[in-house]
Design a protein that fits this description.
CATH class: Alpha Beta
Distance between the termini: 36 Å
Structural class: alpha/beta
Strand order of the largest sheet: 3-4-2-1-5-6-7-12
Strand content: 15-25%
Number of strands: 14
Radius of gyration: 19 Å
Order of helices and strands: EHEHEEHEHHEHEEHEEEHEEHEHH
CATH architecture: 3-Layer(aba) Sandwich
Number of helices: 11
Bound molecules: nicotinamide-adenine-dinucleotide
C-alpha cells in the first residue's frame, strides 16, 4: 500500500481495531491517526492491539505509529484539523445499527450524514487522495435479494437512509472534486473484538455466556449475510490499495442464513463446550428488513476479493475470543 498516512475514524471500534491490527502486522510502522469520540470503542480496546500516543487540538503533526484523538466527527473544525497531511481517510465512525437509528433518527443523521460530509469536506480541503466509506446493506432496504450495487435503493430504517446519503456524497465528491471515494457495503460482520456489539452473533454469544436468555426478534426466519471480520478487513485493505474512485461494492458472502439457523449453530457450538443457550422470541424490530443477502460478483471481478471463512469456523473463532475475554 502506497498510502502511508491514514486517518481512521471510529478506529477504537470493532472493525477499526481489527483493521489497525492487520495494518500493523502487514506494514512496517504505518502512521495512523484514530479519530474516535469513544461513545462505544475505548482506549482500552485500542491498547489491546497496540501502544499509541494521544493528540490534542494544538498538535496536528502526524506522528509515526498510532495516535488517538478523542473527538467527534460532527465537529467541523476538528475534522478539518486532523485531516492535514493525510493520504487516505477510512471513515468507520458512525451511529451504528438499525435499533439506535429508530430510537433517535436525528442523532443518526447528525453522525452519519453530517459527520460523513464533515469528513469529505476535510478530505477535499486538505487534498486527501482517497476516502473509504463504511456502508451497509441497509441502503438497499426492502428489495428482492440478492441485493447488488445497481438496485434502486429503498431504505427501511433511518440508518439505511443515512448510509445511503453517505454513499451519495461519496459519489458526488468523486465526480465533482476528484477524491477517490470507495463505498463498501458490509454484510453482517462478526468475529473477535466484537464484544460490545449488539449484532446477532456477538449478542447471542455474550448473552449465553452471561447466563442470559438470548433474544430473537420475531420468528427467526429473517435472513442476513454473515461476514467474518478477517474477510472484511482484507476487502478494506484492497479498497485502500486499488483505484476505484466513485465505486460501491457489496462485501458479504452471498449466502442467505436465517437468524434462527445461526442461533442454532451457536447453541450447538456452545453446547460442545458444556454451555447452555436458551432462546426466546420477542416482537419483530421496527426498521428490520425480512431478507438480506448480497451478490458480491462485482467485488470479485474488480477488487479480486472473495470471502474465505465459513460461518461454522467463524463462529468457533468468535466463541473462543469471547471465552478468552471472560
Ligand atoms: N459491524 C457490522 O456488522 C457493520 C455492518 C455494516 C456496516 N458497518 C459500519 O462499519 C462501521 C464500523 O462499525 P463497527 O461495527 O466497528 O462499530 P463500532 O461501534 O464498534 O465502532 C464505531 C466507532 O465509532 C466511534 N464513533 C461513533 N460515533 C462517533 C462520532 N460521532 N465521532 C467519532 N467517533 C464516533 C465509536 O466510539 C466506535 O469506536 C460503521 O460505520 C458501521 O455503520 C458495520
Amino acid at each position: 500500500m502506497n498510502l502511508l498516512n491514514l486517518l481512521i475514524t471510529g478506529g477504537c471500534g470493532f472493525i477499526g481495531t481489527s483493521l489497525i491490527h492487520r495494518l500493523l502486522h502487514s506494514h512496517s510502522n504505518p502512521t495512523i491517526r484514530v479519530l474516535d469520540n469513544l461513545v462505544t470503542g475505548t482506549p482500552c480496546d485500542l491498547s489491546e492491539i497496540t501502544r499509541f500516543g494521544t493528540a490534542t487540538s494544538v498538535d496536528c503533526h502526524l506522528k509515526r505509529g498510532v495516535t488517538l484523538i478523542q473527538d467527534d466527527i460532527r465537529d467541523q473544525d476538528t475534522t478539518m484539523y486532523y485531516a492535514q497531511g493525510v493520504d487516505c481517510v477510512v471513515h468507520l465512525a458512525a451511529n451504528t445499527g438499525v435499533g439506535p437509528s429508530v430510537e433517535n433518527p436525528r442523532l443518526d443523521m447528525e453522525c452519519n450524514v453530517l459527520g460523513t460530509l464533515n469528513m469529505l469536506e476535510a478530505a477535499r480541503l486538505n487534498g486527501v487522495k482517497k476516502f473509504i466509506f463504511a456502508s451497509s446493506g441497509a441502503p438497499a432496504g426492502e428489495v428482492e435479494p440478492p441485493i447488488h450495487e445497481e438496485l434502486p435503493p429503498h431504505p427501511v430504517s433511518p440508518y439505511g437512509a443515512s448510509k445511503l446519503a453517505g454513499e451519495g456524497y461519496c459519489s458526488a465528491y468523486f465526480r465533482t472534486f476528484g477524491i477517490e471515494t470507495v463505498c463498501l457495503r458490509f454484510g453482517n460482520v462478526y468475529g473477535p473484538r466484537s464484544k460490545h456489539k449488539s449484532s446477532v452473533v456477538a449478542k447471542f454469544i455474550r448473552q449465553a455466556l452471561n447466563g442470559e436468555v438470548c433474544e430473537i426478534f420475531g420468528d427467526g426466519t429473517q435472513t442476513r449475510d454473515f461476514l467474518y471480520i478477517d474477510d472484511l478487513v482484507r476487502a478494506l485493505v484492497l479498497a485502500m490499495d486499488k483505484d476505484f474512485g466513485g465505486e460501491t461494492f457489496q462485501i458479504a458472502t452471498g449466502l442467505e442464513r436465517t437468524v434462527g439457523e445461526v442461533a442454532e449453530m451457536i447453541a450447538q457450538a456452545l453446547g460442545r463446550r458444556g454451555i447452555k443457550m436458551t432462546i426466546k422470541h420477542t416482537q419483530p424490530r421496527l426498521g428490520d428488513v425480512k431478507r438480506n443477502f448480497a451478490d458480491t460478483s462485482k467485488a470479485k471481478r474488480m477488487l479480486g476479493w472473495e470471502p474465505e471463512v465459513e460461518l461454522e469456523d467463524g463462529i468457533e473463532r468468535t466463541i473462543e475470543y469471547f471465552l478468552s475475554q471472560k
